[in-house]
Amino acid sequence: MEETPIKFELLHVDKYTGARRGRIITKRGIIETPVFMPVGTNATVKGLTKSNLEEINSEIILANAFHLYLRPGLEVLDHFNGLHNFMNWERPILTDSGGFQVFSLPNTKLTDEKVIFKSPLDGSKIELTPEKSLDIQKVIDSDIAMVLDVCVNSKSNYDTVKDSVIKTFNWALRSKEYHNHKTQALFGIVQGGLYKDLRELSLSQITSLDFDGYALGGLAVGEKYQESEKILNSFGNRLPENKPRYIMGIGSPTMMFLSVENGMDMFDCVLPTRMGRHGTALTFEGKINLKSSNVKYDEKPIDEQCDCYTCRNHSRGYIHHLFKKDEILGKVLLSIHNLRFNIFLIEKMRTAIENDDFKYLKEEFFNNSTYSLTN
Ligand SMILES: [Zn+2]
Q: What is 7-269's CATH topology?
């Protein structure tokens, strides 16, 4: 059998939904799926140490090729023999290609061959090609690399989205041809925005290429819940069954339930840490604002079900005080909790899938919390 950089085992599919329980085997460790990946944009998951990440059971983290290319730059990463060694993280890392960040910048110019943009650091002109993105991800030495795709926002018209689908496929072909890092997996990305026929086209094009995994891109870019629901219902379970399926940029409890239900395996989102830095806690009751004076005298942990360091050691009232005084520890403690909450929720989903109970877990979760099923 040919050696592949990763192996995917599909362990069980829930009897009543499309939810899947699986396992990705990499040389740097096993990733149980479904999995939530904390985002480590600048070679750090904001506020968390390596031991914090291990303690919340983060099996993989996501890093950002575009940001790391700008700072610390490839010379430094190369000098340190890649990102794992640089940040002292031994478990798997997935890198995004930089496409999403580059297309979010103002005045980005797109041609058939490449995307040209101004460096947000010094305004200098930078060109990114599918090949260059893979070169960057090779120096980073991530375990899973993503192809460079053309990202559009949810308001884009049909012709713009169609053009992005065509370019995304050409760039996927070039990436597949060029990728030469034998121990690194490469995932393809399906685009097509909210247009079903373009999603259909992109799905057939991208899955005609033998990638190690497949992602749905172009969701969580400002569209309504119902719009993502339609795309996930139609396409989630049509991605190849024997490969990991990744939906990029989602991480709210509602979107994770929707995605898992439709057969997706991997998720990433800055939401838990961003909310954590702004004083909002994710709990099994719903979101709680820890800056509010309602919790000033509250002796309870953030979430009584949660097993994280923060919930084992501190009260809501104490964290409220830290936020009032703008103490750095408040942000750290809440980031630890929010990430653990997402991972804990995913762990519950895994058990539920194994027992064909996913529907019941979803019902219970929404009945007992203030999260809404539609956003
Ligand atoms: Zn907690």
A: TIM Barrel (3.20.20)
